[in-house]
Amino acid sequence: DGKVTLVDGSRPNPNGVSLSPAGDVLYVNAGDGLLRAYPIVNGVPGQGKDIVHGLDVPDGMAIDCHGNIYVSEHPAQRVRVFSPQGKELAPSARY
User: Fold this and answer.
1) Contacts of the segment 88-91: beta carbons below 8 A, 24+ positions apart
2) Where residue 93 falls among pLDDT bands split at 50, 70, 90?
3) Domain that includes residue 42, residue range
4) In the predicted structure, residue 22 carries a pLDDT above the cut 90
5) CA of 35: how far to CAs of 5, 42, 52, 58, 76, in Å?
6) Cα angle at 27 between 39 and 14, to 5 degrees?
7) Residue 60 included in any domain
């Protein structure tokens, strides 16, 4: 219907915004160093949960077909990989 809905107005400078492969979770990272997951039910995002803390100015994000989350950290010049639940899966890769 083209309707735009504010999901969470408390996030400073959201940059990485991605959907899970099934489209049932919205992931958002922002300048506060958090990665937050919002469950989506019947097309509506629910209450978000912080699944990763302490990101170093996240600057973009991607999700693979398994739901793993790749977050780039600009100042640290690295990419970190997390499970859909927020567990870090691999050593950071520098760029």
Assistant:
1) 88/52
2) confident
3) 16-94
4) yes
5) 20, 23, 5, 9, 17
6) 125
7) yes
Report the CATH number that the domain containing residue 49 is assigned in CATH.
Answer: 2.40.10.500
What is the secondary structure of 30-52 as a DSSP string?
-TTS-EEEEEEETTEE---EEEE
Its pTM stands at 0.89
Q: Which amino acid is at 48?
A: G
Q: How far is the CA of 54 from the CAs of 32, 34, 50, 77, 88, in angstroms?
A: 8, 6, 11, 15, 12
The answer to whether residue 4 sits within a structural domain is no
Cα first-last separation, the chain: 40
| Residue 1, domain member (yes or no) | no
